């Protein structure tokens, strides 16, 4: 068998399967449908399915849901308001609250930068001025 013919056949099959899935797909946009999908995804655990549906109802389609293993015996839903970034801290030492791994700054100076900082020397004047005040600096 010719490998190129095999690849062409696989490409045609993939295209056909994707079209078939798109044609037969049904949106899960109500609470009951999301609960059913969540339950199936959680190995038929309806309690987890209900929690997933509740979470989706609270955060919406663009929201972020994070599942974490808890220390107790009960399943629970905690909603945290805020924003999520695709990347975390460059170093865990940026977190000044080690129990929550967050950085909390009180009354900081805020420096908005519209380009990548590639050389610390570009900021030396600002850093020296901020250091003299003793206040924190947030660079965005």
UniProtKB/TrEMBL annotation:
InterPro entries: Cpn60/GroEL, Cpn60/GroEL/TCP-1, GroEL-like_apical_dom_sf, GROEL-like_equatorial_sf, TCP-1-like_intermed_sf
GO biological process: protein refolding
SUPFAM superfamilies: GroEL apical domain-like (SSF52029), GroEL-intermediate domain like (SSF54849)
Nucleotide-binding found in the keyword field: no
Molecular function terms, GO-annotated: ATP-dependent protein folding chaperone
Stretches of the chain forming a coiled coil according to its record: none
UniProt keyword Isomerase present: yes
Alphabetical list of Pfam families matching this protein: Cpn60_TCP1
UniProt keyword annotations, A-Z: Chaperone, Isomerase
Top-rank taxon: Bacteria
Protein name: 60 kDa chaperonin
Naturally occurring in which organism (per UniProt): Acinetobacter baumannii
């Amino acid at each position: 068998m010719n490998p190129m013919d095999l690849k062409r056949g696989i490409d045609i099959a993939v295209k056909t399967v994707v079209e078939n899935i798109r044609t037969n797909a049904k949106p899960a946009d109500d609470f009951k449908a999301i609960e059913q999908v969540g339950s199936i995804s959680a190995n038929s655990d309806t309690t987890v399915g209900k929690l997933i549906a509740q979470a989706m109802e609270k955060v919406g389609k663009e929201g972020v849901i994070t599942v974490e293993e808890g220390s107790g015996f009960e399943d629970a839903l905690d909603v945290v308001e805020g924003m999520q970034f695709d990347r975390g801290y460059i170093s865990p030492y940026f977190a000044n609250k080690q129990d929550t791994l967050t950085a909390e700054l009180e009354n900081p100076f805020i420096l908005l930068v519209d380009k990548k900082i590639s050389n610390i020397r570009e900021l030396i004047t600002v850093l020296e001025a901020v250091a003299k005040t003793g206040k924190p600096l947030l660079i965005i």
